[in-house]
């Protein structure tokens, strides 16, 4: 009778070890970038809060960002930063970037803010990132179309 329990018990033990050793699968996904907030400074420059999103199941180190930035189809310039930021799995963080927009984009945004209207924007370029545990640094292509709206009570701020 005792020997009859050994085989099922051993199989159960092997099954439990096999199930527990796998852990969470390591998945590296393309990151994303978007504007969380744009503030027009007194000197006409823009302060941009750039949101970097890590969709991977492992922490990622974000080393550099280079994004062509357009506002209502007008080229505003290149949004470039070296955040040197580590973002946890399936999380996001924000980096503030000083930005000197093109004269046309500056004028367009000033007019929209004066009218209390928002703007459409596009970010297109690369985010340089790598898994922190192991992994090669690479450039991920990013393209984002979205919209910013004026924030009531905060002049010169769009979200």
What does this protein structure show overall?
The chain is elongated, with a radius of gyration of 24 Å. Helices cover 21% and strands 48% of the residues. The strands form two sheets. Strands 3, 4, 5, 7 and 8 form a five-stranded antiparallel β-sheet that branches. It has a four-stranded antiparallel β-sheet with strand order 6-2-1-9, with no helix packed on it. It has one domain (26-149): Sandwich (Immunoglobulin-like), CATH 2.60.40.1820. It has two helices and nine strands; from the N terminus they run αββββββαβββ. It is α+β, with helices and mostly antiparallel strands. The model has no long low-confidence stretch (mean pLDDT 91). The protein has helices at residues 2-21, 103-115, and strands at 32-40, 46-54, 60-71, 74-81, 85-87, 91-99, 119-131, 138-148, 157-158. It comes from Luteimonas composti. Keywords: Signal. Residues 1-20 form the signal peptide.
List key phrases describing it.
159 residues; alpha+beta; Immunoglobulin-like; 5-stranded antiparallel beta sheet; elongated
Please outline what is shown here:
With 159 residues, the protein is an alpha+beta fold. The chain contains 2 helices and 9 strands; from the N terminus they run H-E-E-E-E-E-E-H-E-E-E.
């Amino acid at each position: 009778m005792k020997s009859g329990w050994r085989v099922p018990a051993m199989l159960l033990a092997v099954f439990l070890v096999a199930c527990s050793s796998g852990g969470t699968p390591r998945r590296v996904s393309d990151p994303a970038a978007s504007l969380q907030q744009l503030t027009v400074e007194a000197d006409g420059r823009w302060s941009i809060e750039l949101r970097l999103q890590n969709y991977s199941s492992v922490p990622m180190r974000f080393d550099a960002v280079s994004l062509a930035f357009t506002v209502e189809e007008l080229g505003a310039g290149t949004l470039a930063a070296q955040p040197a930021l580590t973002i946890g799995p399936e999380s996001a963080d924000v980096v503030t970037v000083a930005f000197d927009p093109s004269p046309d984009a500056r004028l367009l945004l000033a007019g929209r803010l004066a009218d209390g209207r928002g703007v459409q924007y596009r970010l297109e370029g690369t985010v340089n990132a790598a898994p922190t545990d192991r992994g090669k640094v690479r450039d991920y292509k990013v393209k984002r179309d979205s919209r910013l709206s004026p924030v009531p009570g905060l002049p010169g701020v769009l979200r």
